Amino acid sequence: MATPRTMKAVQYEKYGRGAEGLKHVEVPVPSPKKGEVLLKMEAASINPIDWKIQKGMLRPFLPAKFPFTPVGDLAGEVVELGSGVTGFKPGDKVISISFPSGGGLAEYAVAPAALTVARPPEVSAVDGACLPAAASSALQLLKATGVSFDKKTSGSTGPKNVLVTAASGGVGHYAVQLAKLAGLHVTATCGARNVAFVQGLGADEVLDYKTPEGAALRSPSGRRYDAVANCAAGLSWPALKAVLSDEGGTAADVTPGVRAALTSLLQKVTFAKKRLAPLMLTPRREEMEWLVELARQGKLRTAVDSRYPLSRAQEAWAKSVDGHATGKIVVEIGGADDLAGGVVELGSGVTGFKPGDKVISIGFPSGGGLAEYAVMPAALTVARPPEVSAVDGACLPAAASSALQLLKATGVSFDDSTSNATGLKNVLVTAASGGVGHYVVQLAKLVGLHVTATCGARNVAFVQGLGADEVLDYKTRS
Ligand SMILES: NC(=O)c1ccc[n+]([C@@H]2O[C@H](COP(=O)([O-])OP(=O)(O)OC[C@H]3O[C@@H](n4cnc5c(N)ncnc54)[C@H](OP(=O)(O)O)[C@@H]3O)[C@@H](O)[C@H]2O)c1
Hints:
CATH architecture of the largest domain: Alpha-Beta Complex
Protein name: Enoyl reductase (ER) domain-containing protein
GO molecular function: oxidoreductase activity
Number of strands: 20
CATH topology of the largest domain: Quinone Oxidoreductase, Chain A, domain 1
InterPro entries: ADH-like_N, Chloroplast_QOR, ER, GroES-like_sf, NAD(P)-bd_dom_sf
Bound molecules: NADP nicotinamide-adenine-dinucleotide phosphate
Distance between the termini: 50 Å
CATH class of the largest domain: Alpha Beta
Structural class: alpha/beta
Pfam families: ADH_N (PF08240), ADH_zinc_N_2 (PF13602)
Number of helices: 14
Helix content: 25-40%
Shape: globular
CATH superfamily of the largest domain: Medium-chain alcohol dehydrogenases, catalytic domain
Strand content: 15-25%
Domain Enoyl reductase (ER): 18-331
């Protein structure tokens, strides 16, 4: 399909006003310049820097001009190449980082080809859009403390015990997983509601940052840290220094204050054992490729706090400004909102729906779903609330219903009053990585069963992440 001349975008015209300052506009589709690619956008993820720029934190340098289309973490499909660009062709699915020029809250965006990497089908556009700034920052934070991700050296050099603060946030949740991949003991801080989530990422010890121990960053096991990956705003150097081991170590800080550079310089010239390493992300293509590969293998998972269509970008913005995301906040662009369908017309006798309602439905065996419009039985159509994306909603009808009926057929009860009384305790779920299986594992855990699951080797971490207690690679003898 030819690229249109104009597109929908979300922009702000001046500093301040938060989500209210964002306006929906129709603007010309940008043209890729030398070294750039034009992307048809699929998803963009919001980082705190996006709204900090709007707040005027980098005034007068950023944004470069008004009106400004914000957000630099992009996932999309290449539609046009600027001059000099090789290695990509129209149709390629990619992720990219276009910081500080932004442009992500739009149907099309230009991105630097040098910071654009292929997105394999195993990594969804939503997950891919979350990686560029947040996962790269997590990686660079850990590297700044001396952690090596090189298999040959990781066991022998560098720190052993790391503290990751704000481990439930966009950067922190990647930092925990990357630190575990490098074999470190991880103590992590987060709010009480996220303790189980952060444990699920692999953290060995988790502190609620609102308790006295959490505020003091004290490891429950009494360990002192030889590295800190600080992802929490407002933690001072003296507070971080106090928990570094007396033998020395580095606190890498992704939220450095104004004095951080001077403190760090003084430590260098005095050969201090305890060091502060302020971090400003420098995106690197090879790191982005490595992170995408980890995601492809299921070794680096993205937790998506919430997803919004472009038409509700203000809500996504407000959620990020609020500062309480668990994982990443994503704006989905280009049709995803239409996939599961909105009601446009009612057949005779249908009540309970009106045109405009967002719904999911099952049209089996009559089909019809691979079309712009489809008729569906009203009796098997249910409302889709905004928290459930069209993509997620469209996945539920056959696969999740089959998963539920499978478990019920074994005698499992989902009735709160009887679920523990049925006597069933242990279930085996085969093909747990598949469409039906991945719902079965989660439903079985919801009613408290012990789940053993089978899947291929590359999906073991994915299935563990669904909650399976034991996971078997179906290609091994056991
Ligand atoms: N320098 C750079 O290049 C660079 C790059 C990326 C990010 N950053 C900065 O790094 C910071 C983190 O970014 P992000 O994307 O991870 O933010 P985020 O996703 O918005 O972080 C929100 C999460 O952090 C938790 N949190 C906040 N303060 C905490 C504390 N004191 N202790 C423990 N948990 C805390 C919140 O938990 P509750 O909801 O329970 O409060 C929430 O789950 C931001 O300030 C961002 O601007 C800088």
